Each structure stands twice: as structure tokens, then as C-alpha cells.
Amino acid sequence: MQGIIDRRILINYTVDKEVLETYLPEPFVPKLVGGKGIAGICLIRLKGIRPKGLPEQLGIASENGAHRIAVEWTENGKRREGVYIPRRDTSSKLNAWAGGSLFPGVHHLADFSVSEKDGKYEVAFKSDDETSLSIKAKETNYWNTQSVFENLECLSDFFENGSVGYSPNKDHFDGLELKAHNWKVSLLEVTAVYSSFFEDQAIFPKGSVTFDNALLMKDIDHEWIGLGKKYQ
Prior knowledge:
single chain; about 230 residues; 13-stranded mixed sheet; 3 helices; about 10% helix; globular
């Protein structure tokens, strides 16, 4: 599949590694930066999504959200890296119907609310099982000096290298790789963020999750490449 990432917001947290070690299924283990695990939310608007080779006019558009955890695992004797995606949400009925069967990743149908103007972004959704998320952010050049990442280049490289994602689906994980043809990120300042997933203290005890940074990507030509199933 190919298309355009019209807008992608990455909200990133540090998480105590012991919490992620308990939560993650085999074969995944947390990828650490400064002794901390990295997790977050990807809010992505796709347009022109269609089988490779078809004209863009035949593609579909959708708003999507994914909760992600940076992970490592061993495959064929080699260390790999990517993201484990415990949850995907989408505005597309097609994605919700076909996800996990015709294409990788189970998707929950959700109602999205989006406002974008003058470099300011407000995105929220509520899913069919009451999972909810909301963020307010604005474009900035300010770097959070308290970040576990050394600088923007290190942060960009971290996420570009983690382009492979696996999502749970019954007795296996669906694999999907993002191949971006013009990778470029910029900084966002987040003024408010809420995720019922990361607020669930049964999974993430109070104080185990801390906001670190946020990134913005726009107008990214890309492909999605299915990687098949991975079994525990």
C-alpha cells in the first residue's frame, strides 16, 4: 500500500522499564534510552492510501491513532528493533472491518475531532469501547532539555529506525513496516494531553509514565509493507 502521511503527531513518554517488562508479551522487551522505556501515541492522517501502482484519486483517507511501545527482539539470531502496538484506532469503517484480516492490525472504530490552524493542533477521539485520547499542541523550536534524548537528531533517528510495528491479533502478531521516502520531523510543544490507555493505573502505576517530547511530520510520501504473522 502507498499514499501520503498528511499529518503525523508523535507524543512520547518515558516509562519505567520494570512496568514495560511486565506488560510486554514475548518475544518483545523494552528498548531503553537512559535506562527508561519509550512509549507514546501516534496520531496520523493518511490520504490517497491505495494498492501500489494505482492512481492517488482511487485512494482513501482516514484519521488514525496508535498506542506504541519501543521494543527489541531476537529474530534469526539477530537483534531487531521496532514498536509493539497494543492498540489501533481509526475513523475508517473499512479499516475497522478489514484490519486484522485483509490487512495487518486490529483497528477499533472511533469518532475523531480535529482542529488545525496557524501551527496549532487539537486532536481527540473516542472509540467504540470508550477508549479516549485528546491533545493540544503547537509548533515550536524549543527543545526540552530534560528529555532523555540528547537532541532532535537522536530523537528522529530513534523513530526512523523503529519503522517495524507488531500488533496483537488472537494467537499471533501482525507485522507492518513504514517506509517513508522523505523522513523529516519537527518539534511540538504540548499544552495538554490525555490518554485513557496510559492513565490506566492497573497497567501503568502512578508515577511510572512521564511526558518527554512531541514531534510533527507533514506531507510524507510513504509505503506500508505487510510483514506477515509472528507467533510467540
